Amino acid sequence: MEVKQTSYGTSIDILFNLAPYAARPIMVESDNVPADANGRKIVKAGSLLDAQGRAFVKPSSTVIPVNDGTARYVLLKDIDVTAGDKVGAGVYQGTLNLDKIEANLTTDPLNPFVVSESAKAALRGIFFMTDKNIDYKAGSAVGSITAGSHIALTPDSDDDTEIEIAYEA
Fold this sequence. Notes:
The protein has two helices and 13 strands. With 169 residues, it is mostly beta strands. Strands 1, 3, 6, 8 and 9 form a five-stranded mixed beta sheet that branches. A two-stranded antiparallel sheet has the order 2-7. Strand 4 (56-57) and strand 5 (64-65) form a beta hairpin. Residues 136-150 have low confidence and may be disordered.
């Protein structure tokens, strides 16, 4: 048997930091994945996947990426599904770099890809961070968490847990 490995570019690292993350194997569906200029069907790192492993859906005559409340996973690395469905790593818990994800999924600079608020809400175990909302000197998030009462959701529980956040000067 001959094994042929071909690289079609460099897969980006969507992890924001080296903190632990959790992912599971998920069969990434090849249906509706548009082919690139070389005829390859590449699902890019950072693609949002629904529970069935679909990165693209066809609700009408147009194929669109998953970017709504049906999102359940974020694809960790690029995957080539030209020959059919293939197993990938679906991240469901961790801290991901939103800037890298949106830049990697933008195919038209005039119409940039933006992860929707409903997709972010559905991806309950994912924290989306950007370089703009981190204060590296203090080591804390700035502008994304406020003092007060919040609801914390864990990916393996439907129970809401109320937590109190307080800042010390």
